[in-house]
Amino acid sequence: MAMTQERYVGREVLRKEDPEFLTGRARYTDDLVLPGMLWMAVVRSPFAHARIKKVDVSRAVAMEGVVAAFSGQDLAGDWAAPLLMAWPVTEDIKNPPHWPLARDKARYQGDGVAVVVAESRALAADAVEAVDVEYEPLPAVVDMEAALAEGAPVVHEEFGTNRCYTWTHTNGDVERVFAEAPVVVKERYAIQRQIPNAMEPRSVLAEPGPAGSFTLWTASQIPHIVKVAMALCTGIPESKLRVIAPRVGGGFGSKLQVYPEEALALVLAKRLGRPVKWTETRSENFLATHHGREQIQEIELAADETGKIRGYRARVLANMGAYLRIITPGTPLLGAFLYCGAYGGEAYGVEFTGVFTNTTPTDAYRGAGRPEATNAIERAIDALARRVGKDPVEIRRMNFPPPFTEPTPCPSGLNVDSGNYHATLERALELVGYEELRKEQQARRDRGDVKQLGIGFSTYLENCGLAPSRVLKALRYAAGGWDAASIRVLPTGKVVVAIGTTPHGQSHETTFAQIVADDLGVPIEDVEIVFGDTELAPWGMDTYGSRSLAIGGVAVHRAAMKIVEKARRIAAHALEVSEDDLEYEAGRFTVKGAPDRAKTIPELAFAAWTAHDLPDGLEPNLDALAVYDPENFVFPYGAHICVAEVDTETGEVEVVKYVAVDDVGTIINPQIVDGQVVGGVIQGIAEALYEEARYDENGQLLTPNLTSYAVPAAPEVPPITIGRTVTPSTTNELGVKGVGETGTIASPAAVLNAVVDALSHLGVTQIERPATPEKVWRAIQRAKGGAA
Known about the structure:
This protein is of the alpha+beta class and 788 residues long. The strands form 7 sheets. The chain has a 7-stranded mixed beta sheet with strand order 3-5-1-12-9-10-11, with helices on both faces. Helix 9 (370-388) crosses helix 10 and helix 17 (670-689) crosses helix 18. The longest helix has 28 residues, at 548-575. The chain is globular and about 90 Å long. The protein starts with 17 loop residues before the first helix and ends in a 5-residue tail after the last helix.
């Protein structure tokens, strides 16, 4: 086989995945059809809070083509345990059992109360309408502060309160620092609820197999975790359960979940002895796929007269919704150490309170806790700049720590792997043309233009690569932070890599193949990446929190290095030299001083397969497994600048220019990094300007579809300029960090700061999220002293 000296890492290699997608050959869960397959549909409560008095399925069962129908009570004996909640953040957390179907009460609009199974999807949908449910409507509560007030309706009566937990963290003498500080800035921000809208709706297919075995196909980011959770919930032995996530059309955290429908499909397949399939409608997605965000934040900065920050304090209310799903209570805490952002200081304190409401449960959504923290600190630091009369650039520069290339503590106590925050800011200022923009802004103000210009900054810091298992234990997270990869070099020299992370748009097949191709010196076309199947890739902790490359990619590299070391022993034996006499580069071992005496990885793989002449005690075949448990998180950071025009007569906001300079460590594929950043920025702009899930006081979702809930399309995408610096991570030998969430973490604060900056000369100091034209117009009227 021909060898190559060409390096792949750092190059814009075309995505290996794309031919399958572009030719329509990709297979998603909803594409799968099995002999004898049945369709499942869920009966969902129209009420946000109601007692279930009676469920009558007789009319549905009598319909032609309907095979079965069950209430929550009918299936009560089928569950070994409630659905898994993996993050009990405090010892006294209130964690109600969450069964796949409600039995006594519906606690949010869309809560499943019954299920029907029919010969077709249309018949199942019709049968849902024939299930008679008698409800006793109860008072609902959707507002977090109202939910904590005395006399509020209680979502879970057994607790007598809607307070789920309170979690605190302090580092340093917070009270003293705030008491002594000559300047204290206090801000309050509300972060709206959002609804993830992946291109592919959720879909599940459960098939009973021989000897009590089952296969579950599911559109999931976490097939390995789903397998464990389904074994616990259904009682099906884990050894009898195979979970496959085929092609997955986006997730953004919404498919980082163990859903009731997965458990229902398995139990019904077990009961009926036939494959059972379910695919959600977009309307079900809005009601029953978990939501994201929704917080009320109070943040305080303690500083001296010049604006030098000494301390941070934040209190956060986080809406849990009606139940705790897999990491619901822990999601806000993923940002708990970042309310100091990229800045220095000596004291830090945060308090988080989780609150139950009669709304769809919340959980991870792109960035998961980090965008929320960045929203608070980046908007508050602009408020501090206004307070002490400094430019937002100057206030950031003076509070950045010096560049560092070794782990360095930040005010919250985290040891950040590496950073040069000044470099990203200076590069962003250069790309945006800051001085000229300020001149243009002043000229518009002087002329009294209707459209005013605003410049907003977000110099963010992120922790990602959900990391050391021992740290996660200290945070009471149920799972570990490791990941695994196995590599087989086949006798013909082709390479198969089984990974424990599951892509849903992150290009694992390309980036991981680039790493392996370089490590083993083979063409990238000869590297096949296998994923998303708990039988073919049995070990893994899956994909979320920008951990795939920083943990899974490092596991791949370490497995490749194990291959190299085994191959070294075989090469030394075949060339009749010591291992120390060999040099290795790009898949080729050569004898020092005699470069013509050489063996390649494919040649050694064939020798390992024949096993005719291996060193004593060495097992045949060239394969290896590596499990990587990192020593620390990784910490991407960057500087984003948004330039926005605000129409002072209508309140309309238009982003006219956006610059994103990120440092995500070593770059594997620049094109893929740029795509991740741009996609994230667009998602964050939408979060800042128009995406919002709203309920009325009775818990009815007022934005139940794409006509009332705005998601970005091509016309909403502004010009985006990408830049980067490279400060390798010290956490891993590849020097890589995460990139999948950076754009969404940084951009909302940059946009909101730009809107306020455009109107600051009018007296506007804060804009509510999302900054719709109405909200902006009202803020202008209030600043002018008018009624709004």
